Amino acid sequence: MTDLPSSHDWPRMQPGWVWLCGAGPGDPGLLTLHALNALRQADVIVYDALVGEAVLDWAPQAELIYAGKRGGKPSAKQRDISLRLVELARAGRRVLRLKGGDPFVFGRGGEEAQTLVQHGVPIRIVPGITAGIAGLAYAGIPVTHRDVNQSVTFVTGHDASGNAPAALDWAGIARGSQVIVIYMGMKHIGQIAARLIEAGRAPSEPVAVTTTATLEGQRTIETTLARVEADIAAAGLEPPAIICVGLAVALRQALDWQAQARGEGPRDTDPLDRRRPAESA
Description:
One of its GO terms (biological process) is methylation. The protein is an alpha/beta fold.
């Protein structure tokens, strides 16, 4: 597929505009058609660390500018990135700001959009598929299930300072959300797990950790809230990772579709037909 269907009136990227676009969780097949349309038109693409070459290959005509931010590694300052977008737009370029996942889900897209608007730069927002849903789906974990949970909470595992978010009401989250999905939480998962247990979550509650979600090297471990930090270390997992806490993780025993595609049968066709996690390990 090299061209979009002509039957639809696809939006045109105009000089001096910035489109803030989600590239999805990694698998290039999870790009939206609007994202592909943007890739085919951009003069310059400012892209993040989680945007892969297979996605950028859709834009051979564009200048590529890397603006990735990875925890613990030298990274461009956010204000510099935002002002660079302003500069490129004012130079009359068709600018695509490409972010992994969705630009407005823990992607600082809102900050960049606000800076652009404040400088009079016209913008378009192109949502993307976020890893907190798609990455878990690729691991065989539905973030909602009628028999398991009627709520899901998405949280970040670190704040602007790089520490575990102190402003979050962990006790309230522990009590109020049946399933918790944590982005960028591997570094502080020990602290986060301890806070959730202290707030009343069972130490034996199921936890899944998925790395390199939706890509060929995807790995998922199943563990418990009490053991998640130790099991991550034992497995040698590295970020980026999505962490899911809750009974929905048990459904992976039946719904690990990638394992089944390799010829492995489901480990349990009805994993919910058992007692819920005990209140203590």
